[in-house]
């Protein structure tokens, strides 16, 4: 009897589609059964862990010259590599979207946030990552990995974040088989708005970092028992060290009296340590203290006591976070998986936070734009009267601005400042015993957060997919860093990168950087505490562009714009080309967003 050969082909996926190889006849006797082979990860592919910290600052951890003890990060770096010229998008959601997709944040619609009040109805700002921009979790899952995420996510639109979904933009809809954490951008560590998989659950009262670490270890334990040879991907993103700074006194009291010398002395000590460790260039010069920050010696005794306690709590919080990461690392060592695990530790998703204002905050979210009209003096009175509350479950703490600059040593400015290295330069640790020879080495190649995805894929031996679940994928925009792993002198391959957050913007090209600050007075409490005017029609042409040669001036002290005006124009043209290519236009800034919020009594539904 004649037989029919099936012409059915498998749907497009991340791998080459498997054509049907059986035979379909008119009867079972004339037919040959066939099933596609299960997808397996490449032989020897490593487990992968991405650790993404929040609001840390370049000069906070001991690993990169800071005065806060981070022994686990120290160990990972000593047995891996320190990337000291790595960069983020200057604020959390854009950085995380760019990392997870390997594409620029405006390109994946995350120019601001996924939160209703901070998103806008334009392609670069609607806060909805398209399916054509698949995540690292989607890619690895369809290449034979199990995938888990714990901690802060921050990329689910507010209106989709209830238990009714839809769940397409929850972590489980973006490639993670299991998720435990919170969907927002910040949360209380003891009263966390917790989610597990696709539903909200009640927190158990323990610190969030302890809970998420328990969950991460349990995911790994169950997976390795069920499929010992199957690799996993873990996205570990604690809320730390974003506000609120909350930690048990057994951790914060480790630093009692350690910061009584204040932020000016701290900066100098950290700068000297960074030079000694080689994590900043030998030609770096420490910038002057920002004029918005008072000299430590000008403060009263009461202020010094209060402000020092803020940083003791912050330091304890960071050391506690390091300890929790250590629990995961120790578990991997215990089950003999550590040597074949690729670990990235991104020390912050932006620079240290300026949202605590000049005075710090104890009660309520301390950002100036959320202060609801409270004056600066009232903030100070509240904080002095509440010193014992700092760091407790009853508080919602963020340190004052002076400590933000200290934690960002050696750079100027801080989180949200996309025009500055202080907003965008964050250290990266790469740990992979089976793949790194130069253990303890320093790498100075220019890198950006979009590079994490292609670096992971190259280490794992996986190609970027043409299709994911039948959806054709955009090109990956990051550059793998693997070329530099065993060659410290290799020239940088990521040679151009734009930055833009709420009006502040810059463009990097081959060591040169043109930058324009927008709203440099955002820290003026009186301006943003209820007095903001509806000024949507901004004249961005009035923003002053500066020019820096980062090879000669890594801390951006010497503005060369007047000396080389043609270079400024050249870089501005590159920025404009990227703005058109990646959906940066139209420009939207903080005052645009928050004046709408104020005028709508906090019930804004986005810019319209």
Automatic annotation (TrEMBL):
<keyword id="KW-0378">Hydrolase</keyword>
<dbReference type="InterPro" id="IPR000917">
    <property type="entry name" value="Sulfatase_N"/>
</dbReference>
<protein>
    <submittedName>
        <fullName>Sulfatase-like hydrolase/transferase</fullName>
    </submittedName>
</protein>
<dbReference type="GO" id="GO:0016787">
    <property type="term" value="F:hydrolase activity"/>
</dbReference>
<feature type="domain" description="Sulfatase N-terminal">
    <location>
        <begin position="46"/>
        <end position="462"/>
    </location>
</feature>
<comment type="similarity">
    <text>Belongs to the sulfatase family.</text>
</comment>
<dbReference type="InterPro" id="IPR050738">
    <property type="entry name" value="Sulfatase"/>
</dbReference>
<dbReference type="Pfam" id="PF00884">
    <property type="entry name" value="Sulfatase"/>
</dbReference>
């Amino acid at each position: 009897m004649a037989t029919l050969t099936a012409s059915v082909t498998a749907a497009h996926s991340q791998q080459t589609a498997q054509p049907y190889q059986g035979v379909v006849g008119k009867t079972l006797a004339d037919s040959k059964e066939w099933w596609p082979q299960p997808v397996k990860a490449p032989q020897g592919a490593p487990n992968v862990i991405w650790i993404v910290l929040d609001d840390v600052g370049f000069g906070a951890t001991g690993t990169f010259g800071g005065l806060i003890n981070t022994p686990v990060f120290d160990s990972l770096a000593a047995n891996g590599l320190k990337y000291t010229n790595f960069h983020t998008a200057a604020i959390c959601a854009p950085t995380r979207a760019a990392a997870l997709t390997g594409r620029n944040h405006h390109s994946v619609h995350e120019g601001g946030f996924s939160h209703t009040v901070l998103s806008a109805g334009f392609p670069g700002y609607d806060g909805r990552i398209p399916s054509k921009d698949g995540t690292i979790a989607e890619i690895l899952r369809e290449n034979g990995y199990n995938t888990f995420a714990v901690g802060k996510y921050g990329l689910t639109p507010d209106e989709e974040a209830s238990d009714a979904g839809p769940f397409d933009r929850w972590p489980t809809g973006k490639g993670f088989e299991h998720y435990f954490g919170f969907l927002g951008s910040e949360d209380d560590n003891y009263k966390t708005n917790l989610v597990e998989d696709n539903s909200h659950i009640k927190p158990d009262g323990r610190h969030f970092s302890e809970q998420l670490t328990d969950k991460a270890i349990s995911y790994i334990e169950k997976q390795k028992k069920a499929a010992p040879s199957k690799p996993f991907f873990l996205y570990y993103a604690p809320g730390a060290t974003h506000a609120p700074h909350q930690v048990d006194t057994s951790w914060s009291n480790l630093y009692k009296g350690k910061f009584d010398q204040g932020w000016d002395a701290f900066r100098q000590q950290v700068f000297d340590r960074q030079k000694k460790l080689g994590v900043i260039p030998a030609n770096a010069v420490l910038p002057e203290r920002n004029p918005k920050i008072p000299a430590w010696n000008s403060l009263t005794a009461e202020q010094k006591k209060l402000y020092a306690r803020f940083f003791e709590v912050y330091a304890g919080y960071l050391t506690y976070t390091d300890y929790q990461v250590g629990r995961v690392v120790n578990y991997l060592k215990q089950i003999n998986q550590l040597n074949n695990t690729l670990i990235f530790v991104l020390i912050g998703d932006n620079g240290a936070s300026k949202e605590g204002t000049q005075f710090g905050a104890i009660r309520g979210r301390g950002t100036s734009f959320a202060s609801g009209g409270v004056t600066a003096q009232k903030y100070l009175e509240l904080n002095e009267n509440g010193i014992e509350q700092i760091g407790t479950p009853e508080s919602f703490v963020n340190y004052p601005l002076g400590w933000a600059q200290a934690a960002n040593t050696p750079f100027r400015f801080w989180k949200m400042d996309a025009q500055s290295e202080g907003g965008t330069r964050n250290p990266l640790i790469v740990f992979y015993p089976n793949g790194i020879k130069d253990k303890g080495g320093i790498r100075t190649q220019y890198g950006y957060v979009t590079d994490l995805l292609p670096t992971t894929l190259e280490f794992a031996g996986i190609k970027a997919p043409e299709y994911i679940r039948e959806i054709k994928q955009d090109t990956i925009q990051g550059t793998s860093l693997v070329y530099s792993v065993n060659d410290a002198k290799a020239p940088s391959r990521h040679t151009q990168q734009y930055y833009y957050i709420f009006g502040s913007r810059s463009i990097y090209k081959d060591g040169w950087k043109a930058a324009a600050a927008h709203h440099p007075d955002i820290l003026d409490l009186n301006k943003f505490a209820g007095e903001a005017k509806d000024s949507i029609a901004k004249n961005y042409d009035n923003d002053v562009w500066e020019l820096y040669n980062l090879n000669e001036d890594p801390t951006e002290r010497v503005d060369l714009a007047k000396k080389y005006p043609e270079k400024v124009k050249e870089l501005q043209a590159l920025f404009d080309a990227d703005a058109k290519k990646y959906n940066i236009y139209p420009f939207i800034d903080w005052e645009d967003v928050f004046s709408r919020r104020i005028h709508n009594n906090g019930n804004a539904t986005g810019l319209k």
